Amino acid sequence: MSAVILSGLEISNDIRNKLKKKVESMKQNGLHPGLAVILVGNDPASRIYVNNKKKACEEIGIRSFEYVLHEETSEEDLIQLVETLNEDKSVHGILVQLPLPKHINTDNVLLKISPNKDVDAFHPFNVGRIMIGDYCFLPCTPAGIMEIIHRTGIDLQGKECVVVGRSNIVGKPMAMLLLHSNATVTICHSKTENLKDVCRRADVLIVAVGKPKLINAEYVKDGAVVIDVGMNRLENRKLCGDVDFESVLEKASYITPVPGGVGPMTITMLMKNTVMSAELSK
Question: For residue 188, what is the domain's CATH number?
Answer without folding.
Answer: 3.40.50.720
